[in-house]
Amino acid sequence: MNVYLITGASKGIGLALSKELMSENNVLICVARTTNEELLQLGKEKECHIVFLEYDLVNIEGLEELIKTMVAHLPANPHSITLINNAGVVDPIGRTENNKAEGINKSITLNLTAPMVLSSAFIKHVKDYPIQKKIINISSGAGRNPYTGWSSYCASKAGLDHYTRVVSQEQDGEINGVKIISIAPGIIDTGMQEKIRSVDEKDFELVGRFIDYKEQGQLSSPEFTAQKLKRIIESKTFNKLDPILDLREL
């Protein structure tokens, strides 16, 4: 059995990836602010064991308990354990001087602090399992290129990438360590993209380009993205991957 803990599992890439990973050989522990009943029903139909945990990741004090819950749901003799840090927000969108402390704090907490805390707890609590252990951080090209109006989002994703580099370096020297990667999925047709297209050009000067992406059919679907992510996650050469990746190049 393969066990997956997926954050942001109720919509977008997280929902599509949860559906893609469903099988009788997998256990899914899905985390989101609200339960997705469609996902639970699909799990029953596919005879996949699913646990849905309603939790707001901004409450970082309880994140280690999420990992403990995952460990408590591990089946006997699991084949692999994977943490997928997918949840995130693009807000606040706007020039730096117009962003408020609350929005900046939420962005950094969801996009960076929560994945760091979850990853730290994951590494600690699965340390004694002599099986394959993986962490997949869903990053963004915004972490590798600056975009006016996305200061918090760019900074948080850049931080996530560099955090991944450090943890990868630390775990490389461990016996039966955790393999961690940070992967930018590309431009995906999700609610986040809808949010981006709705903002004023004075807050995000590239909004016209993102509207064009949608109108010209240049956005990847969550389902197609999930299929590609699944192939990478299940790849026999996963442990040889570079820590920083772009899905469009794979």
UniProtKB/TrEMBL annotation:
Query: Which processes are annotated in GO (biological process)?
Result: tetrahydrobiopterin biosynthetic process
| Presence of the UniProt keyword Cell cycle in the record | no
Q: Which UniProt keywords apply?
A: Cytoplasm, NADP, Oxidoreductase
In alphabetical order, the GO MF annotations are: sepiapterin reductase (NADP+) activity
EC number(s) stated in the UniProt entry for this protein: 1.1.1.-
Keyword Metal-binding assigned to the entry: answer is no
Where is the protein situated, by its record's location annotation?
Cytoplasm
Q: Entry's InterPro entries? A: Biopterin_syn/organic_redct (IPR051721), NAD(P)-bd_dom_sf (IPR036291), Sc_DH/Rdtase_CS (IPR020904), SDR_fam (IPR002347)
The record's section on Gene3D superfamilies has: NAD(P)-binding Rossmann-like Domain
Question: In which family does this protein belong, per the annotation?
Answer: Belongs to the short-chain dehydrogenases/reductases (SDR) family.
This protein is called what?
Short chain dehydrogenase
Which organism is this entry from?
A: Lederbergia lenta (Bacillus lentus)
Name of the gene this protein is made from: yueD
